[in-house]
Amino acid sequence: MAEKVLMKGNEAIAEAALRAGCLHYFGYPITPQTELTAYMAKRLPKMEGGVFLQAESEISAINMVYGVASTGKRVMTSSSSPGVSLKQEGISYIAGSDLPAVIVNVQRGGPGLGGIQPSQSDYFQATKGGGHGDYHLIVLTPSSVQEMADLTSLAFDLADKYRCPAMLLADGTMGQMMEPVALPEPHKSIIEKPWAVTGTQMKREHNIINSLYLQPEILEKTNFDRFERYRQIEENEVRYESYLMDDAEYCIVAFGIAARVAKNAITMMRKYGLKVGLIRPITVWPFPKKAIKDAADKVKGFVSVELSMGQMIEDVRLAEECKRPVVLCNRAGGMIPGVDQIIAVTKDLVCSVEGGAR
Amino acid sequence: MTTQILIAGFGGQGILFSGKLLAYKALSEGKELSWLPSYGPEMRGGTASCSVTISDEPVGSPIIDHPDVLIVMNLPSLDKYESTVKPGGMIFVDSTLIGRKVERTDVSAFYIPSTKMAQDMGTPNLANIVLLGKVLKECPAISRSYLEEALKKVVSAKHPEMFELNLKAIDAGYNYS
């Protein structure tokens, strides 16, 4: 294995993208993801064929991504919550044109301009569409600096494989913290892209990249075809970590930084005999529905720990089909649920399920 | 074993740098670690803090609610974090900048005039490192081993002379009694 280096999460994403053969980056600085843009600004101009461009706005940057993605080259943009909102129109066009691209959202508190501290309140935006029209992104949620790197590599591969945009849904903590990371080996896309706009050299028909279909029958077909690919993604690409679930009587569901805090809380609770486990979605679209559904047959209740007013909790409830109570443990606006809070909420749930005082 | 260290002071005192030095030292030792800075407006003159967790096992949450070791370089930080330190923990105080004593009786407190010492040495920017020297001396979980390796990684290549000056500052704090 490669020697471990210390890196900020934002830098690990950037380095992993370069190693995945991403030579095109377009972005605009915003806290707490600016180190990613800065890293690309430093490195890409020195690389053969590398293009770094600080666009005049996020809207401009995502449309540059649309352009490069049309040529089949690996391309990335990154921002934080308000900036990702600005990109939504472009993301819808990229999805509607069936193009691979990687978008990074290092989330901060909202809505509006919000704050600069970590948040997970763009969950709905990332997993339920975000822009207009019927589409999904593959949404990956790193929970360590190592995963910031590893899931970046994976995002490029999955985007190429399924011809759809993939999003890395991180948060300010993941972006700003440093941890030892073993960087992935350089690798490039091995997927043929016969659809790419690369010049015909008078040898083939023109490839046309487009999301406009004025005949509804044809537009409908593109939607059905795309959703067949989404079905394959749901079948093949669900990823999650199951932590101490074998004997668990209660299940915490959390991703990103919330999952890290939850693990500490679980360690504490197990010390005094409360059997709690964790299901940590690594993909939040596709959501690990089956893992949650199977857990519902074994556990007595779920706690959804989130840095939002409760967004993922809806997917948890849908997945467990209302078999067990699901309660929310949350902070919002840039605050992070603490170990003490997670323990208190879990104990409340235990009391309400099993009766008795705390 | 897991040691949680919280370093806090004004932005510009090298709070994050101190944390980085501890982080790189842990990396050189082959330990698990996380380094989490406060970020944003507080870095420009307000209160800055940095949470470093060093462990023999993978680090859970990088957020520190109750540190084992608190290193403070201004009064607001001592006021804010004194009560959060684990019973039996340690508090290191820059006594040039903080006039009061630690009120807790269930923790060990150490007072080092690190800002004055750094000024007297002609390197006023290294008060954070002087203070860290005392931490390395007193805290069994954070020994002096691998310090040179770590310093090499955090001192800018553009200013190699800073390596020796940092070592000198560490020694000053280490030998202070």
How would you characterize this protein structure?
The complex is a heterodimer of chains A (358) and B (177). Chain A has two domains: 5-236, Thiamin diphosphate (ThDP)-binding fold, Pyr/PP domains (Rossmann fold, 3-Layer(aba) Sandwich), CATH 3.40.50.970; 241-354, Rossmann fold (3-Layer(aba) Sandwich), CATH 3.40.50. Chain A is 41% helix and 18% strand. Chain A is built from 13 helices and 14 strands. Chain A has helices spanning 9-19, 34-43, 58-70, 81-86, 88-96, 123-127, 145-162, 172-176, 216-236, 256-271, 289-296, 312-320, 339-354, and strands at 5-8, 24-27, 51-54, 75-79, 101-107, 138-140, 165-171, 178-181, 240-243, 250-253, 276-281, 283-285, 301-306, 326-330. The longest helix of chain A is centred in the middle third of the chain and has 21 residues, at 216-236. The model of chain A has no long low-confidence stretch (mean pLDDT 96). Chain B is of the alpha/beta class and 177 residues long. Chain B has one domain: Pyruvate-ferredoxin Oxidoreductase, domain 3, CATH 3.40.920. Chain B is 36% helix and 21% strand. Chain B is built from six helices and six strands, in the order βαβββαββαααα. In chain B, helix 1 packs across helix 5, helix 3 crosses helix 4 (127-138) and helix 4 crosses helix 6. The longest helix of chain B is centred in the last third of the chain and has 15 residues, at 161-175. The two termini of chain B are 28 Å apart. Classes of the chains: A alpha/beta (358), B alpha/beta (177).
Counted by DSSP, the helix tally of chain A is: 13
Identify the CATH class of chain B: Alpha Beta
Low-confidence stretches of chain B: none
Number of strand elements of chain B:
6
Beta-strand content of chain A: 15-25%
Quaternary structure:
heterodimer
How far from one another are the termini of chain B?
28 Å
Shape of chain B: globular
Please name the CATH architecture of the largest domain in chain A. Answer: 3-Layer(aba) Sandwich
Please name the defining characteristics of this protein.
heterodimer; A: 358 residues; alpha/beta; Rossmann fold; 2 domains; seven-stranded mixed sheet; five-stranded mixed sheet; 13 helices; 14 strands; globular; B: 177 residues; Pyruvate-ferredoxin Oxidoreductase, domain 3; six-stranded mixed sheet; 6 helices
